[in-house]
């Protein structure tokens, strides 16, 4: 199957992503090695892996996770189109977490030393990598706040808003028709530190209040302002314009 040139990437025209110069696009294209297609439920990066390259998720959903010896899993974050994956491994000897796909997905694969080449080849692209790392840290802060301090209602409401806004920004209609939602209740529970039973009850409670509906693999929000108040979410959850590697 023919690979997609960086200049024809379907994500770049979206308002979510900042525009890059021709020189920046040529640099990114020179570092791209191939594209990788995975089916839902496959592993992109294994925990402890030492040889993983860098990836940009072109389409589909995935998630980062850590597991304990007995198999208990904490989902650290969910990944969508445009997310840059693998930076943390470059800061150490091995990947501190794994990455699995939630849906069929397509990844752009970059050589392992791409971080250094981006910094050497373009100051602006080097800054973009720093921005992406800082943005990911802020998302982890939000997850820590939910797991550590928010109630079950607040946790679920916060997660639904943030995922909805991120997915809506990748759609031409801005989420008016709902957004794809491939998460199971177990994924939600593992991401929020809740039991499966508690997660189910909380989702039902919020749905009965007329705040959302998850049906046929799609999520619709009916009263985002009320849900944001419930979650005590700063801002409206809309993702900021971001660079695309």
Short structural description:
This protein is 38% helix and 21% strand.
Percentage beta strand: 15-25%
Low-confidence stretches: none
Kindly report the oligomeric state of this protein.
Answer: single chain
- The value of Rg in angstroms is 18 Å
For the biggest β-sheet, the strand order reads 1-8-3-6
Average pLDDT taken over every residue? 90
**What string gives the helices and strands in order?**
HEEEEEEHEEHHHEHHEEH
> What's the β-strand tally?
11
Count of separate structural domains? 2
Q: What structural category characterises the helix and strand content?
A: alpha+beta
Principal-axis shape equals globular
The helix fraction, in percent, is 25-40%
At CATH level 3, the topology of the largest domain is: Jelly Rolls
Provide an overview of this structure:
By secondary structure, this protein is an alpha+beta fold. The chain has two domains: 6-126, Jelly Rolls; 143-231, Arc Repressor Mutant, subunit A, CATH 1.10.10. 38% of the residues lie in helices and 21% in strands. It contains eight helices and eleven strands. The protein has helices at residues 22-31, 87-90, 114-121, 123-148, 152-168, 185-192, 196-208, 224-231, and strands spanning 32-38, 43-45, 54-59, 62-67, 73-79, 84-85, 98-101, 105-110, 179-180, 212-215, 218-221. The chain has a four-stranded antiparallel β-sheet. Helix 3 packs across helix 4, helix 5 (152-168) packs across helix 7 (196-208) and helix 5 (152-168) crosses helix 8 (224-231). The chain is globular. The two termini are 22 Å apart.
